[in-house]
Structures are given as C-alpha cells and as structure tokens.
Write a structure and sequence with these properties.
Blueprint (H helix, E strand, L loop, with lengths): L3 E8 L3 H12 L4 E5 L6 H5 L2 H15 L1 H7 L11 H25 L3 E4 L1 E6 L2 E5 L14 E3 L6 E2 L2 E11 L3 E3 L12 E3 L12 E5 L3 H12 L3 E6 L10 H15 L2 E4 L3 E5 L6 E5 L4 E4 L1 E4 L3 E3 L6 H4 L22 E3 L10 H15 L14 E3 L5 E5 L2 H7 L3 E7 L4 H6 L5 E7 L5 E7 L3 H13 L4 H6 L9 H18 L14
Parallel strand pairs: 1-2, 1-8, 2-3, 8-19, 10-17, 11-12, 11-17, 12-13
Antiparallel strand pairs: 3-6, 4-5, 5-8, 6-7, 9-18, 14-15, 15-16, 20-21, 21-24, 22-23, 23-24
Helix pairs in contact: 1-9, 3-5, 3-6
Length: about 500
C-alpha cells in the first residue's frame, strides 16, 4: 500500500494534537490528525477537563450552595432535578467543544482520520478503522474529512511524514480489585454515564480528579467518603492551602476522609450496597464507587518498537526540552509524557514542539512557571514555591495574607473563608509563590503568574491600581501585609528601660 504523505502526522486530537496541527498549518505545512475515537477533542472535551468543570458549575447552581451563603435563602432544586437535567449542560458544553475543534481543524485544512494508529516504521503510520461511518456527514470510525467534504472510506490506510507528534493522552488506571464492569463502579470516564445520582459514594484516591468529583457530588447531597493510602490531601500544595481545602470540604460539604486506608477487596452485588474492605481491617458500604487511582498513557496500541521508542512506566514517553523523543523527528506532548498533564500545558508543549520541528524561533521554550488550578469547592490554585519549598531551600521569606472576607468583592460574592497567600523573598521582596483558595481562585492566580514571570517584587502591587471592587485588590492587601511584617522583622530591638537609680 502506497502511503499518503504529509509534513506532519499527529496521533490524537486533544488539546495538544489540535494545537500542533493548527500551528503546522499556520506554518504552511500539510498536517493530518489520527483519532481512534469517533469524536475529536480527546479527554479534555469528552471525558475530562471540560465535562468535570461543567458538572461542578451545574452542581453549584442546582444545589443552591452559593445562594444559601450569599442571600440566606435556599434556592436548591436538587429534590426535583433528574440526572438528565444535571448532565444536560455538561453534554451541551462537550458537544459544542467538539464542534469547535472540528471547525478549527477544517479551517486550518487539517485532514482527520478516524481509526487505531500504529507505527510501521519511524516515518510510517497505519490507521485501521474500528467501525464504518453511518451518519453520512460526520467523521466517524474509518473515515476522514477535509474542507467539509463527505467522509472517505478507509478501512486501512498508511500515512507517511517527516515529523510525527504523539499526543494520545491517557486513560484511567483500573486496579484489579475493582469490578469495573459493574454498573455502579466507575472510573473518571464512566462517571459521566450515570443513570441516577448515588445516595452515597466512595471516591478512591485523593488526587485532583478524586477531590474535584467528591466536591461535585457532595454539593448535590450525596454522602461522600474519600479513601486514600496517604494522610494528606493534594500534598503538592502549600500545607496551609491543603489543610484549608480539606477543612472546607469537610465542614461545608460533609465529605469524610479515610486516610491511610487502601482497598483490598470490593464486593459489588447487582443490587444493594457495594462493600469495600480495607487493609486496616475496616469496611465501608456505599451505593457507588469512583476509582481515581491515576492514569496511564495511551501508548499500548502504537507499536512504538517499530518506531524505535521504548515507553517507560505506565506507558509514559520521555522527551527533551523541545518535546523530542529518543527518535528526533518524533515528538510527544500532553498526558502521554506525564506531569503536569494539564490541557493548558499540553497545548503549549505542542506549540513549542512544532516551532522546533519547523524551525520557527518565536516559541522555543515552555514558561518555567506553570499555574495549577483545582476545581474543587472551593477552588484552589497556585504557582511557584510553597512555604515548605522555601524552608527546605533555606530561603528567608515573608508571608503576606489577604482574606476574601476583608476584600469588598469577597464580601459581595459571599466568600467568608477564601484567602490569598503571597510568599516574598525577605531580602529583596521578590515574589516567590502565590497560593489562593476561594471563589475564582483559578482566575485570581493569573495576576501572580504574570508578576512572577516578570520577576516582580512587591513594589509592582504597591504601584498597581486595581478596579474596585475586585478580587485583584487581594494582591495589594496581601502585599501591604507582607511589607508590614518585613518592617517589624527588620526593626531594631527596643532597648530595655534604664535601671532606676538606687535610693540615696
């Protein structure tokens, strides 16, 4: 079979794949995307980033959680809401995102092939369809489209390119003790296929995905237990932020944490409660289980040996600073290379890779500082060093704090527990870390992102004028707080009063 040639082949149509193909097209290159799913967009659009965040917003609206705190009245609809209503907004958002990706690829002239991709050699990829198209107009299994043409049948086709990007994403890990074929035992993909809201839910794993879904379901009235073999929530966070988040999840949402417990057995009858047994000897009976025990890279079917690539643990691919694998013309980006495995970083990684591949010098390195956004209830976000990092490095620092409750906009939106924490290097007041918990934390952190990328000191915020009332004002309040502490630290000790003269 004579292969069809392209300048770039991208395996995977998620954020990294879409960004890479669009960038190559803008460079005047002919690009093709290979996608094994009938739907474009990857986990970001279909099972991960957007669906979970949309469900969170829907849960907040349906539960009336914000309204109860803000207005002192119960506007909850959850007693009447059905699962179909709960999932309606999520399904509309994901459908619209898929359409956006399709339009973007079509606008850039990217050819899309649907089927399972595998390497034949370092430059040649085979695509085998899994199912014929059946709707006459959309790109489904075994078909490709270009410039709004009708799909072209291709049960098997070979493609060749000088540059290849692997952006196949990741899938949930399935620990063997859980029967994932059971209707009420879910991973982070199948949880979106709920037929009813569970009365009680055990979330196995206290990572980002587990914490986010725990908050979503707890806000709707589901009893939620989070089970983890560790003893700390999201340990990569600043300890103060992690502790505040755990406290809020427990006190505001009623989530119970079962630390230092590992599930050894899961008994899941067709009807009745599911029983979990722990290595500590404890047991827990729940209506449903969500296993969020990590993810593995989708590289098993790629036949990487034919390309000369050896995957690491959980299928992870090793890359250099420009996202090249051990085979220089084959790049990898996104979840398939591991941490931080975010949609935002995946897109930037792919753009850097394409600039390297096609000799464009204006985007050659990913920013050294990357924000983390966690869409729990409340939100949490951070960039830079934690207090624990600075202590370990022996860097003297000053902490500046600002409470949402002491900020006019925080009072307006009814957030009484959120706060911004800024870490400044003591000698020159350079900003070293930004930590936020509260409403819109994933947005608030961006002010700090730009400041840190500019190597700013606290003087930047002292001179800045923020709109009032806004959460941006938190930066000025926290910076004043830091400077005040610095002055107190640097102030010379007050001499003791002179001793009274002895009586004559």
């Amino acid at each position: 079979m004579e292969p069809t040639s392209y300048d770039l082949i991208v395996i995977g149509s998620g954020p990294a794949g879409e960004s890479a193909a669009a960038a190559a097209s803008q460079f005047g290159k002919r690009a093709a995307i290979l996608e094994r799913s009938p739907m474009v967009g990857g986990a970001s659009a279909n099972t991960g980033t957007l669906p979970s965040k949309t469900l969170r917003e829907t849960a907040l609206a349906i539960s009336g959680l914000k309204a109860r705190d803000l207005y002192g009245v119960d506007l909850s609809l959850r007693r009447e809401a059905t699962v179909a209503e709960f999932m309606f907004h999520e399904r509309r958002v994901t459908a619209n995102e898929r359409k956006r990706v399709e339009r973007s690829l079509s606008r850039h002239g990217v050819v899309v092939y649907h089927g399972t991709a595998s390497f034949l050699d370092p430059h040649t990829v085979r695509v085998v369809s899994e199912a014929p198209a059946h709707d006459g107009g959309h790109a489904h299994g075994g078909y490709h489209y270009h410039d709004h043409q009708q799909p072209v049948r291709c049960h098997e086709i070979h493609l060749k390119a000088d540059t290849i990007l692997i952006a196949t994403g990741s899938s949930p890990v399935h620990p063997p003790q859980f029967p994932f074929d059971h209707a009420r035992v879910h991973d982070s993909d199948t949880i979106l296929q709920l037929e009813r809201l569970p009365r009680s839910l055990a979330v196995i794993g206290a990572g980002v995905i587990g914490a986010e879904y725990a908050c979503t379901f707890a806000s709707l009235g589901t009893e939620v237990w989070v089970v983890d073999g560790r003893d700390e929530l999201l340990p990569f966070l600043d300890n103060e932020l992690s502790g505040a988040l755990e406290n809020s999840m427990h006190s505001q949402l009623g989530i119970e944490f079962l630390w230092k417990n590992r599930v050894t057995h899961c008994e899941a009858p067709e009807y009745g409660d599911i029983t979990l047994e722990f290595d500590t000897g404890g047991r827990l009976c729940v209506d449903a289980v969500l296993v969020a025990a990590g993810r593995a890279s989708n590289t098993t079917a790629l036949n990487l040996a034919a390309a000369g690539i050896e995957p690491g643990p959980r299928g992870l691919l090793t890359v250099d600073a420009h996202y090249r694998t051990s085979v220089p013309h084959i790049y990898a980006a996104g979840d398939v290379i591991g941490f931080p495995a975010l949609a935002s970083t995946s897109m930037e990684q792919a753009r850097v890779a394409m600039c390297q591949a096609f000799g464009k010098g204006y985007n050659t390195n990913l920013a050294p500082l990357l924000p983390t956004g966690i869409y729990t209830i409340p939100e949490a976000s951070m960039i830079g060093a934690t207090e624990e990092d600075l202590k370990a490095q022996g860097v003297p620092y000053i902490v500046g704090r600002a409470s949402y409750a002491h900020c006019a906009r925080g009072e307006i939106i009814g957030d009484q527990t959120g706060f911004l924490k800024l870490l400044y290097r003591q000698d020159d007041m350079k900003l070293m870390g930004v930590h936020v918990i509260g409403e819109q934390a994933s947005e608030v952190v961006h002010v700090g992102v730009i400041a840190m990328l500019a190597d700013a000191t606290g003087d930047l915020f002292n001179r800045s004028c923020f709109n009032f009332p806004t959460l941006g004002d938190l930066y000025k309040i926290a910076t004043y707080n830091a400077y005040q502490k610095r002055e107190q630290t640097a102030a010379p000790p007050v001499p003791p009063p002179a001793a009274a003269a002895p009586p004559s």
